[in-house]
Amino acid sequence: MASMSFAAAAQPFLKRAVQAIPNPSFIFFNHKFNPSLSFTSSGFIIFPYYKFSIGICHLAQAVRGETEVLLKGAGERGSIEEVKHIIEMAKRASIRREVLHTDFLTPPVLKESMMVIEKLEDVTASVQGGYPEAERCRLSVGHPEALTTDPDIVAALSISGNFGFQPCSHGDFLGSILGTGIVRDKLGDILLQGEKGAHVLVVPELVDFLTMSLEKVGKVPVTCKKMPLIALEYEPPRIKSFKTVEASMRLDAIASAGFKISRSKLVGLISNGDVRVNWVTVSKNNTTLKSGDMISVSGKGRLKIGEVNETRKGKFAVELIQFL
């Protein structure tokens, strides 16, 4: 009796195994694939899944290509990658009929993301920052049939202590919170409450951690408790406007005048990564600014560029709005 190869002997069992599958087909983005089973002369199994896998690869390339087209002309270079991730997340949520959430986004990233999402079919979005005037917000994206109400994705904390003799700034609260080990993207706005402390917006999953971990802000012992969003106390930020005349709209010229520090010191702060324009860290002191740009320096606060007019001598008269 001639010896039978293992592959030849296994053929009947493999065929019965495939036939035992209730419905040997797959649905992929409204395309149905029916696998068939065949054997080579050597007895190896051939599934026509290679066409299926190639289709996935082509689809992924198409999605990436479409995203690149949608992002063409995005305003802030530093936010393009983050916006790209959000758009791909939105498409994924729509396809799977689910709802996905971002962390807290800066205003430029949120603005660019919403502009692109408006162009997508079968994607809806919900923006939440905890209160109507929120600057940092979370974005929920999904299919319209899945995202029918605003998800509960923002929580509020009350940080209280005796700040009457040791006032603390926005930076003091932010630094102390980040000192517990969490990242900035998990925090929303910080609303200062004067001598009483501050109200802070966070992702809900960090509420318990912060109430147990945050013990001091600066040198002031504090108590951290969860509070309802409806109890948030918000007052518009105090501002002071003044004007400066500069030879150019370079970052080092405008920021040194606005924060009243020397250009050499400002260049050092830029090199250390302590200077941001529109919430994006900058590395070049000759970055050109324009009306509406927001400049922030660690430990110094924030400035917004208001109206800009060119003088007869070719210089720039710049209105600077300082947040107190």
What features would you describe in this structure?
With 324 residues, this protein is of the alpha+beta class. It has 3 domains: 58-142, Ribosomal Protein S8, Chain: A, domain 1 (2-Layer Sandwich); 155-231, Alpha-Beta Plaits; 239-323, Structural Genomics Hypothetical 15.5 Kd Protein In mrcA-pckA Intergenic Region, Chain A (Roll), CATH 3.10.290. Helix content is 30%, strand content 28%. The protein has 8 helices and 19 strands. It has helices at residues 6-19, 49-71, 80-95, 107-117, 170-178, 207-213, 251-259, 263-271; strands at 26-28, 31-33, 38-39, 45-46, 99-105, 124-128, 137-142, 155-160, 187-192, 197-202, 216-217, 220-221, 223-227, 239-246, 275-277, 280-281, 294-297, 301-310, 316-323. A hairpin with a 4-residue loop joins strand 9 (187-192) and strand 10. Residues 249-311 form the RNA-binding S4 domain. One of its GO terms (molecular function) is RNA binding.
Give a quick summary of the entry.
With 324 residues, the chain is α+β, with helices and mostly antiparallel strands. It contains eight helices and 19 strands. It has three domains: 85 residues, Ribosomal Protein S8, Chain: A, domain 1 (2-Layer Sandwich), CATH 3.30.1370; 77 residues, 2-Layer Sandwich (Alpha-Beta Plaits); 85 residues, Roll (Structural Genomics Hypothetical 15.5 Kd Protein In mrcA-pckA Intergenic Region, Chain A), CATH 3.10.290.
Assembly category: single chain
Note poorly predicted spans: 17-65
Structural class: alpha+beta
Percent helix range: 25-40%
State the domain count.
3
Order of helices and strands: HEEEEHHEHEEEHEEHEEEEHHEEEEE
How many β-strands, per DSSP? Answer: 19
Please give the radius of gyration in angstroms: 28 Å
Round the mean pLDDT to the nearest integer and report it.
81
- Named at the architecture level, the CATH assignment of the largest domain is 2-Layer Sandwich
Ends apart, CA distance between termini: 96 Å
Main β-sheet description: 6 strands, antiparallel
Strand residue content: 25-35%
Basic shape = globular
CATH class of the largest domain: Alpha Beta
Pfam families: S4, YlmH_RBD
Organism: Deinandra increscens subsp. villosa
Keywords: RNA-binding
Protein name: RNA-binding S4 domain-containing protein
